[in-house]
Design a protein that fits this description.
Length: 337
């Protein structure tokens, strides 16, 4: 199964934070840089989203509503159902992280790549991922405030103000400036991709440094981590099953069902990590651990499913979608998102 190289970088960053956590003035500098990086990330997200493509995508509204319902209704319901596992299987902080995982938006890049590999509706996957990310900027913090309460490190009006200033305002600024900087972003897509990843690594380092300084990692044992992995495996299996057979029951064609399955069963690391840093503060390290583990799990499992879908008898007469077809090669995983 494929191992996402970026996950290895994330794990290396966690190791660096464990060995050399930022303290004192260094922690203040890292925190300030992390705040700026989060704002810049969401500015880029806004600048890259084509309003015209989003409007065109609304024509397939039933598919997008289905994906949004899976992402922001079904996933959170399953997360709430897992509350019974606390404290027998999961600690309070690990459960909070698991519940937060169920609230974040869907992915974009990997949903497109897997949909393409499985010969599904790629344009629908593009729009579904974009809509989910856009809606998640508002819905995820609101759901977190409603469902997590004070368990995630102190949700308050101040937390929501931070979300608006660090996420929503930069995103809207990117949308406004897109007409002037969109061409530049397209020409330098590869370089800006490294900026994206570097920014997220900085956010992870800052979050895990704060966790190390506060000693919260002593709360996690190998048994608890094993329990978390088992719970996430069940969560992913349930969502993959519901999105595939649920879409069939709703009357969607095979190509649309593929897009729904891959866009509706995944969670975005790129969006979730910055949001967790803003929402959880010093508790962000344990909050993002379930998301990091789930992200790698979904890549590995979906890579296998996509390859099998491509060889379904129904796929024999379906042309290979040109969009993102080269994003996945045998033995590799799509870009983290």
């Amino acid at each position: 199964m494929p191992i996402d190289p970026y996950i290895l970088l994330l794990l290396g960053t966690v190791g660096l934070a464990a060995l050399l956590p930022a303290r004192g003035t260094g922690a203040d500098v890292a925190s300030g840089a992390s705040t700026a990086a989060i704002a810049f990330l969401f500015f880029l997200y806004g600048a890259r989203l084509s309003t015209r493509e989003a409007v065109e995508g609304l024509k397939h509204w039933r598919l997008h509503v289905t994906v949004l319902a899976c992402t922001f209704v079904v996933f959170p319901v399953l997360g709430l159902a897992a509350r019974g596992l606390e404290p027998v299987l999961l600690t309070h902080n690990l459960y909070s992280g698991l519940l937060f995982l169920t609230l974040v938006p869907s992915t974009i890049q990997s949903s497109i790549a897997f949909t393409s590999m499985a010969r599904g509706n790629v344009p629908a996957a593009i729009c579904a991922g974009s809509f989910s990310s856009l809606v998640g900027i508002v819905v995820t913090p609101l759901l977190a405030a409603a469902l997590l309460g004070n368990s995630g490190g102190g949700f308050s009006a101040d937390s929501l103000v931070k979300i608006v200033l660090q996420l929503l305002v930069p995103f809207l600024a990117g949308q406004v400036l897109r007409r002037w900087i969109g061409g530049f972003l397209t020409r330098h897509k590869k370089v800006l991709g490294y900026v994206d990843r570097g920014s997220i690594l900085l956010v992870v380092y800052t979050a895990f440094s704060e966790g190390m300084v506060q000693g919260i990692w002593h709360q996690v044992s190998a048994v608890r981590l094993s329990g978390l992995l088992a719970v996430e495996a069940v969560l992913l299996a349930v969502m993959l099953t519901l999105t595939w057979y649920g879409a069939k029951a709703l009357g969607f064609h095979r190509e649309d069902r593929i897009a729904i399955q891959f866009a509706g069963s995944k969670k975005s690391l790129a969006s979730g990590l910055p949001m967790a840093s803003v929402l959880f503060g010093a508790h962000a390290s344990l909050a993002v651990l379930p998301l990091m583990l789930f992200h790698q799990m979904q890549l590995m499992v979906c890579a296998v499913i996509a390859k099998r879908r491509a060889h379904d008898p129904e796929a024999a007469t379906t042309p290979v979608p040109p969009v993102a077809a080269s994003r996945i090669a045998v033995g590799t995983a799509p870009r983290s998102d």
